[in-house]
């Protein structure tokens, strides 16, 4: 009975401490550990989702991201720091190494403090530009919180951001009530480069702009960026699926903006969406959502009467084959079947150097289960022999990369797999010729051995010789 | 709060006819000039913040667009913090802001030529929408209003502005392999005619032989002299053809070779005797 209860307790604990797919050791870098009271709700939310938080200051001597060549933490969250750099333990090189080792980084900025050079260099590495002098403030004179920033207009109000493109999954605003509004107080906007790894999550409204409050308080002579060119929350996913998020305003994660009431410019009051947004942004960064897993891959000959061997290593040209891949997506606590957004498709390439086929993989409900969705494609192999790959290269913004390559040989036709010559109508005269020759030869042999000479004629024949 | 707001808006409505709204940004003395390098083609237009220009202004590759206005807060000239001219591409909604240089008095100006405009907007097919944004800190209502449209005229002799779309992850166009065409045969009728023509050669040959006096008169003599040898020899020749036929139909080489060996041996041994018998007939002068 007791063991039953302990088992139940274990199950319960497992259910409560839902974990990220890539570990739960989270390093929180704060200028002063006492500052964490400002973010207590955000950090408590993280803890309740199973993360083990370690707090460090950049100056701490014991701080090391790697121990014995392995990552000492799975994720890092940076809160604004007044120091100019971040010390020898958090150089841009080490942070890039951390990303290369599949660690995830969440960086928050604040217009009140200049961004540390170490983070500016890291952002440059990722093709994210910050305003010059590491200081900027985003204001919008058309959409601000009239109750807390009526004069300064630096608390921007925005609707929760929809997907960046119609074929991208909506992670950050799904399920938000229409009345809910995001508050972005006193933040820094960034300009994103053309890299395909970058995805803006929250863009500034079209009338917002960034200026330097120290130098451009009177007039904006040199504009850094304005409107939707200004990204307030940006993400970058490396080729190894390591995730990086830049939140322009650390203040939007503070307790006072969680479930706060704001007043829009036209006098409506609304609740902030910040708490849920902070959960989703941190959840995305720390691999709790948008993580894809390939469960299995199977391909087989799809021809009537053929041996139904699973995933053979060799096929013949022009064989009909069927390819199936099973994918799951992690959603906070558990794996769910992965469904592509409506405007998007999963594609299969059959390639030797370059793709010969690129086909849509369609959902196959028969092979899908409660936590995995199967996608399948049936097609005829090309009439070219060689070493080919079944390749699923699914790279989409905000979803972890899927790159699966299955190599098979494709042989040419064996001599006995061609149609017989008597089936080919063009060969009939030739086959007839062979038959006539055979019959003629047998007749000739019989005549040569058994024919008696014709009298008279034979004598005449002899004379001529 | 809401009450004062509604009160304010009511006031606004009342005031609207008389003067501009209380505490709102606007502009006066707005003018737009497109100056061509060759002084001939200068176009000047007066701008009004309420009604945008009805016809698009065209901007050639060597022209400069000059916008001059006086920003006003509640009717008085004043310097706003945000004074932008925003060009917007109508299809994609892409925007390019151009900050105006503003003096203390509110006098603001901006000059735009082709080299200032991002290539994505230069390549636009529809006229660009230009709006003026004037706003600043404090309670004054900002102004964001379309004022005119710009048609970008590219120089026909110069290369068109090239814009390469950056790589974005998404689905790619489908590829379907194009198979080589299957081998074809001529119409069956033609094959049949020629097959029959070939087959007709056999009776033609046999008839030809018969006409020339071919016969099998020595068959009984030969069988009588060496029955086994003749039967085996002729049988082995027929058998060899049957082996070849079987090889064509179904046998593989390793099935055919041993049988060929057996039939060949029979042909060699029976052949010596049978052909010896034929020779004896020749020597006897019967052939």
From TrEMBL, chain A:
Cleaved signal peptide residues: 1-18
Keywords: Endoplasmic reticulum, Membrane, Signal, Transmembrane, Transmembrane helix
A Pfam family per the record: OST48_MD
A biological process from GO: protein N-linked glycosylation via asparagine
Bilayer-spanning residue ranges: 427-450
Domain OST48 N-terminal: 25-285
Biochemical pathway: Protein modification; protein glycosylation
Gene Ontology cellular component list: oligosaccharyltransferase complex
Chain coiled-coil ranges: none
Source organism, top-level taxon: Eukaryota
Domain OST48 middle residue range list: 308-451
Topology within the bilayer: Single-pass type I membrane protein
Family to which the UniProt record says this protein belongs: Belongs to the DDOST 48 kDa subunit family.
The protein's role, per its UniProt record: Subunit of the oligosaccharyl transferase (OST) complex that catalyzes the initial transfer of a defined glycan (Glc(3)Man(9)GlcNAc(2) in eukaryotes) from the lipid carrier dolichol-pyrophosphate to an asparagine residue within an Asn-X-Ser/Thr consensus motif in nascent polypeptide chains, the first step in protein N-glycosylation. N-glycosylation occurs cotranslationally and the complex associates with the Sec61 complex at the channel-forming translocon complex that mediates protein translocation across the endoplasmic reticulum (ER).
Assembly: Component of the oligosaccharyltransferase (OST) complex.
PANTHER family: DOLICHYL-DIPHOSPHOOLIGOSACCHARIDE--PROTEIN GLYCOSYLTRANSFERASE 48 KDA SUBUNIT (PTHR10830:SF0)
Entry protein name: Dolichyl-diphosphooligosaccharide--protein glycosyltransferase subunit WBP1
Origin species: Trichocladium antarcticum
Automatic annotation (TrEMBL), chain B:
Domain Ribophorin II C-terminal stretches: 179-282
Topology of this chain in the membrane: Multi-pass membrane protein
One Pfam family recorded for the sequence: Ribophorin_II_C
BP GO terms, sorted: protein N-linked glycosylation
Matching InterPro entries: Ribophorin_II_C, Swp1
Key words of the record: Endoplasmic reticulum, Membrane, Signal, Transmembrane, Transmembrane helix
Major subcellular location class: endoplasmic reticulum
Any one cellular-component term (Gene Ontology): oligosaccharyltransferase complex
Localization per record: Endoplasmic reticulum membrane
Domain of life the protein comes from: Eukaryota
Residues in coiled coil: none
Signal peptide range in chain numbering: 1-21
Segments crossing the lipid bilayer: 189-212, 224-247, 253-272
Protein's name according to its UniProt entry: Ribophorin II C-terminal domain-containing protein
Organism per entry: Trichocladium antarcticum
